[in-house]
Amino acid sequence: MQRLIYAIFALAAIVALVAVSQSPGTKQVPYQDTFRSWTHVKTLVIRPGHPLYDGFGGIHHVYANNKALGVLKAGSGKFPDGSVLVFDLFEASDKDNAIGEGKRKVTAVMVKNSKYYTETGGWGFEAFEGGDRTKRVVKDPVKDCYTCHTGQAHRDYVFSQWRP
Q1: CATH top class, domain 28-155
Q2: Pick from 150, 156, 146: which is nearest to 77 by CA?
Q3: Hey, what long-range contacts does 77-82 have (CB within 8 A, 24 or more apart)?
Q4: C-alpha distance from residue 116 to each of 4, 41, 64, 81, 125 (Å)
Q5: Burial class (CB in 10 A: 0-12, 13-18, 19+), 79
Q6: Are the C-beta atoms of residues 50 and 19 closer than 8 Å to each other?
Q7: How far, in Å, CA of 135 to CA of 118, rounded?
Q8: Closest CA to 151 of 127, 121, 122
Q9: I need a surface site. Which of 47, 64, 95, 157 has the fewest CB within 10 A?
Q10: Domain parsing of the chain, residue ranges
């Protein structure tokens, strides 16, 4: 009987640890290895003189997995859990009358999980410096990402739109 009680307590402790490890404060957004094979949603170039140039200057590519793509193509709606958007930012190289990709600056990831990320509209945010999965940039997802995304609440906090 005593072994059964210990086993129940051990099981309860494991369940509690799993629940804590998946809370919004500790659940890390994973780097997405395959995003370059997803659907390319758009490209944007932010040049000197734009108000966001200091933080986001360069060439932006946005990719969506299949779950996110359906909402983007519909033009509105809530993204289902499991939706992922990737924002890949490169320096813009202006040479010989052509603008091309320079060094990768950051790869940012948004993952929809309404249970884990309640403080940030159901989205988990992370950015990886230079696209390096070991160099996480986001220290505070609310201040570093969500605050800016709140202006897009009417589009479930997503800036990018599908262009047919």
Answers
A1: alpha beta
A2: 156
A3: 77/156, 78/156, 79/112, 79/122, 79/156, 79/158, 80/112, 81/112, 81/113, 81/114, 81/115, 81/122, 82/112, 82/113
A4: 32, 26, 20, 10, 11
A5: buried
A6: no
A7: 24
A8: 121
A9: 95
A10: 28-155
Confidence (pTM): 0.81
Tokens coding 137? 């940039």
100: Cβ contacts below 8 Å, ≥ 6 apart: 92, 93
Exposure class string for 2-28: b at 16+ Cβ within 10 A, else e: eeeeeeeeeeeeeeeeeeeeeebeebe
Residue with structure tokens 């500790």? 26
Query: Per-residue pLDDT for the chain (164 aa), expressed as one digit of tens each?
Result: 444 334 334 333 333 333 333 444 458 999 999 999 999 999 999 999 999 999 899 999 999 999 999 999 999 999 999 999 999 999 999 899 999 999 999 999 999 999 999 999 999 999 999 999 999 999 999 999 999 999 999 999 999 999 88
Residue with tokens 């800036």: 159
